[in-house]
Design goal:
The complex is a heterodimer of chains A (298) and B (367).
Chain A lengths: L2 H8 L7 H33 L10 H4 L4 H34 L6 H12 L5 H11 L4 H10 L13 H25 L3 H9 L4 H29 L3 H6 L6 H9 L7 H29 L5
Helix pairs in contact in A: 2-13, 4-8, 4-10, 5-8, 8-10, 10-13, 12-13
Chain B lengths: L1 H11 L17 H10 L1 E5 L8 H12 L2 E5 L5 H10 L11 E5 H9 L3 E2 L20 E14 L22 E3 L7 H12 L9 H12 L3 E5 L2 H6 L4 E5 H11 L5 E4 L7 E9 L5 H11 L2 H9 L3 E2 L2 H6 L5 H6 L11 H18 L2 H4 L4
Parallel strand pairs in B: 1-2, 6-7, 6-8
Antiparallel strand pairs in B: 3-10, 4-10, 5-8, 5-9, 5-10, 5-11
Helix pairs in contact in B: 2-10, 6-7, 6-14, 7-14
The chains are: A mainly alpha (298), B alpha/beta (367).
Chain lengths: 298, 367
């Protein structure tokens, strides 16, 4: 082929104006500034603070202190609570979203559920804890109702709101709605024609789920569950008001930083750096799972 | 009167006249008042309006001096207050506190970190000397006695002492007002129960034992009790400072009826201390505030909030307390105050062992 013909086939080389590239960078600036101010710089402060003692001298003692029994127990409990609420919250939230969108329910339910979820996913902290105390506490409305109307003694059968299980139940209140909100667009992406097409080709519902629906949904499912994990891991005010007996890392940190009694700020910083490390590990596992679930796309 | 003179001079100089409302029992020194008014604002921190009557006291102070009071994070704890000073050392903005009101053991800690400046109010000599730092860095302001706030519509047989709390009739009814690893009030509740359980201020282990018994008897509700849970009947017996208990009773106005019980034995006094920040953006306003707090007016203000004050003995000796107010204060004979060392030792013991001895993990026996 002659050179001009070759050029015609490949297309003329595009001239790249330098101006366009600078403008692209500008678009990134707000995010970078925001991330730097509210994510990067605080993390730097955390790490620097964790390496200092109360007088400001450099020390590794704060990390050494992390090996105390009750702190390790705190991390284990926090991870356990977060895993339970992430997985259970994820599954039930997904089922709820699926039921409302593709489950053949009355159409007014979807906007109602979405609006409610928008509010409920942000309802946390002291008001949430008190709401649960007033409904599920020893003399709570629901407790009394079940006892008086059906003779069901919740506390007699071992339920205790002021425990790890109680905290998990309370966290579910904002975990379900968050899952519903985030899964809704993904479920919308599951087109009805695919279901019909797979049925036409002879697939059973189970096969449809295994080969079509789940592979499409799994990346979003996993991503949202990690979000739920982080959400639950970082919750403090709800747990403090409801059941401060339960040994969670966020409660230990708040006791160090703002409590009236302990005041080892350096330990608070090192605990927080520990939390960041755990989240990093969680995200790493998520990335591995994500890669695997997206294999079919490549 | 100096206030009138200042008003006149303010009018004359063309600045808008602030109509000051004089407060009985508080006559601010003219020079200090002028210097404070030039600063114009006072930054306070961690002063909830219903704690020891701070709300009305701040209003009275503003009325008497014309200073604007900026109340930072009313729900903060003592640790937060020290952190606020440390983080704002070079910042003279509205987030930097001028004065702090912290738990007793935090006074020495603040001095160690260089966060306070010395100031002795004009009534210094009448303050109980056991409660102040001799160098004037911090000074005791008020104290309360740990009491039981009892919701009498739920609890028919009101407990009179610590040992009564173990009775089976109080199942699922008793709560603390905070977490003993974080809250001054809660940890001192545990220390107080030690006194009522045969222990001493030097050994808070009896307090931990008492709460372990309470937990195992099923009487202890491991949540943070407050006015809401007291009223709803979830925590009808709340262990809290008498001034908070009495203010809850007032706020609830009999719906439900709340009785405040000072235990027969084990009367534990918790003192809070005032201090002026070494980095205060408005040092003269801070000094004026302290003058107000330690004037008769400020003292009566705290007493109205059911808080005993460190100038109480002086006020009583001069008959400066109205009889009706005095009648409302609880009987605190036999109240004991721990020293700083005793507080530190108990703190370490209780915060270190609370979760392992009394925590939820004890109730659900772990292998």
């Amino acid at each position: 082929m002659t050179a001009p013909a070759q050029m015609l086939v490949q297309g003329a080389p595009k001239a790249r104006p330098a101006r366009r590239r600078n403008l692209n960078v500008l678009g990134l600036a707000p995010f970078v500034i925001f991330a730097a101010l509210f994510l990067l710089i605080p993390v730097v402060f955390l790490v620097v603070g964790s390496l200092q003692d109360a007088q400001g001298n450099p020390t590794l003692a704060n990390y050494g202190d992390l090996s105390q029994d009750f702190i390790i127990d705190a991390y284990v409990t926090s991870i356990r609570v977060s895993l339970v609420t992430a997985i259970a919250g994820g599954l039930f939230g997904f089922l709820l979203a699926y039921a409302v969108i593709l489950g053949g329910l009355p159409s007014f339910l979807r906007p109602a559920l979405m609006t409610f979820s928008g509010v409920a996913s942000n309802f946390a902290g002291v008001p949430l804890a008190l709401a649960f105390i007033f409904t599920l506490g020893h003399v709570g409305l629901v407790t009394k109702f079940l006892l008086d109307s059906f003779g069901i003694d919740m506390y007699g059968s071992g339920f205790n709101l002021y425990s790890e299980v109680g905290i998990e139940a309370t966290y579910m209140y904002f975990q379900f709605p968050l899952m519903v909100l985030i899964m809704a667009p993904a479920i919308d992406g599951l087109r009805q024609d695919w279901r019909e097409a797979s049925a036409n080709l002879g697939a059973t519902p189970a096969e449809y789920w295994r080969h079509i629906a789940l592979p499409i949904l799994t990346p979003t499912l996993l991503g949202t569950m990690i979000l739920l994990f982080g959400n639950s891991f970082g919750a403090q005010a709800t747990a403090y008001e409801l059941a401060p007996q339960v040994n969670l890392v966020t409660l230990v940190i708040s006791a160090q930083m703002s409590g009236d009694v302990l005041h080892n700020v350096g330990l608070g910083y090192s605990l927080a750096v520990g939390m960041i490390a755990i989240m990093a590990v969680a995200i790493f596992f998520y990335t591995l799972l994500q890669r695997r679930s997206e294999r079919w796309l490549r | 009167m100096p206030l009138v003179a200042l008003l006149a001079s303010a009018c004359g100089s063309g600045t808008p006249a602030v109509s000051l409302v004089p407060v009985t029992g508080f006559t601010p020194d003219a020079t200090l008042l002028a210097a404070a008014q030039k600063e114009g604002t006072l930054n306070v921190i961690a002063l909830p309006p219903d704690w020891c009557n701070y709300g009305p006291m701040i209003t009275a102070f503003t009325g008497a001096t014309g200073l604007k009071v900026n109340s930072i994070t009313p729900d903060a704890g003592s640790g937060d207050e020290l952190t606020a000073i440390t983080s704002n050392k070079t910042n003279a903005g509205p987030q930097a506190p001028d004065v702090v009101d912290v738990g007793y053991s935090f006074g020495a800690q603040a001095v160690q970190q260089g966060l306070l400046q010395a100031y002795k109010v004009s009534t210094w000599s009448t303050i109980d000397p056991k409660t102040v730092d001799p160098n004037g860095m911090w000074y005791g302001d008020y104290y309360g006695v740990l009491s039981f706030a009892v919701n009498t519509s739920v609890v028919k047989d009101v407990p009179a002492d610590w040992s009564d709390l173990l009775k089976p009739e109080y199942a699922h009814q008793i709560a603390l007002a905070g977490d003993p690893t974080a809250s001054n009030q809660a940890i001192q509740s545990v220390e107080a129960s030690a006194l009522g359980n045969g222990g001493t201020l030097d050994n808070a282990q009896k307090g931990l034992d008492f709460f372990k018994q309470l937990q195992q008897a099923g009487n202890f509700v491991p949540t943070v009790g407050g006015q809401g849970t007291l009223a709803s009947g979830e925590t009808p017996i709340l262990i809290t400072w008498n001034y908070l208990a009495q203010s809850y009773a007032d706020a609830l106005k009999g719906n439900p009826a709340v009785q405040v019980v000072i235990p027969k034995t084990g009367r534990f006094g918790g003192i809070y201390v005032q201090g002026i920040s070494a980095y205060a953006p408005h040092p003269n306003a801070a000094k004026l505030w302290e003058e107000y707090l330690y004037s008769d007016a400020g003292q009566i203000g705290w007493l109205t909030g059911y808080c005993y004050t460190t100038r109480f003995a002086d006020l009583v000796s001069r008959n400066a307390i109205p009889a009706a107010l005095k009648a409302k204060l609880p009987d605190d004979t036999g109240v004991v105050f721990p020293s700083a060392d005793q507080l530190t030792a108990s703190k370490t013991l209780i915060t270190g062992n609370w979760k392992s001895e009394v925590g939820v993990s004890v109730a659900t026996a772990k292998p």
